[in-house]
Amino acid sequence: MTRLLIVGPPGAGKGTQSARLLETYSIPAIATGDIFRKNIKEETPLGIEVKAIVDAGDYVPDSLTNALVKSRLEEADARDGFLLDGYPRTLEQVSYLDDLLAAMGQSLDAVIQLVADQEEVVARLRKRAIDQGRADDTEEAIRHRQQVYGRETTPLIAVYRDRDLLIEVDGLGDIDDVSSRISEALAARGIVPSAK
Ligand code: ADP
């Protein structure tokens, strides 16, 4: 049973590393950004409500995001572990998640922080804009997302560090190297893939 968070600035490679972690640890990866994009694409009521916010690179209101995560964590596949990618992103989301997990008798094992410098991540996002055509990958939206991250999400790092949950991992270099760094850091804390 492994319960993890992965945090880092837009473009740090959270999605890429999450995909690997879910394989290795056999836990569902829950990415709030992916869930929002899926809803936008399918034009669900939630998608219609959040489209302009997400396209502009602003944060969806905590009330909506928290409710979404609650219902997702209550699904059967998340009962025995999960990796949350892109949530929590505000201090209010942190305290909501604390209460939610406490009510479910659960707690986090570790928080993986992917560290990457700004120039590198902006370059990566520009490339992704060409490859994937994400509506929030315009240069202006990218810059805005970095600012919002710095203001709203950076304070979370200190909170999890104080709780001794934070694992800082250098996000630069080969995808495989970054994955190895994460696995080694988790193993050093006794967090290893459970036998299936
Ligand atoms: P990135 O980290 O590259 O910016 P994500 O896919 O994680 O991309 O998120 C895309 C967008 O979805 C965010 O810019 C924001 O609008 C919205 N979003 C995702 N997660 C959250 C969250 N926890 N709280 C508020 N908004 C969120």
Descriptive terms for the model:
five-stranded parallel beta sheet; binds adenosine-5'-diphosphate; Rossmann fold; alpha/beta; 57% helix; 196 residues
Structure report:
- The protein has a single domain (2-188), classed as P-loop containing nucleotide triphosphate hydrolases (Rossmann fold, 3-Layer(aba) Sandwich), CATH 3.40.50.
- The chain has helices at residues 14-25, 32-41, 45-56, 62-73, 91-103, 118-132, 139-162, 175-188, and strands spanning 2-7, 29-31, 81-85, 110-115, 166-170.
- The termini are close together.
- A five-stranded parallel beta sheet has the order 2-3-1-4-5, sandwiched between helices.
- The chain is of the alpha/beta class and 196 residues long.
- The relative contact order is 0.20.
- It is globular.
- The chain is built from eight helices and five strands; from the N terminus they run βαβαααβαβααβα.
- The structure holds adenosine-5'-diphosphate.
- Residues 10-11, 32-33, 36, 53-54, 57-60, 65, 86-87, 89, 93, 136, 145 line the site of adenosine-5'-diphosphate (ADP).
- Adenosine-5'-diphosphate binds next to helix 2 and helix 3.
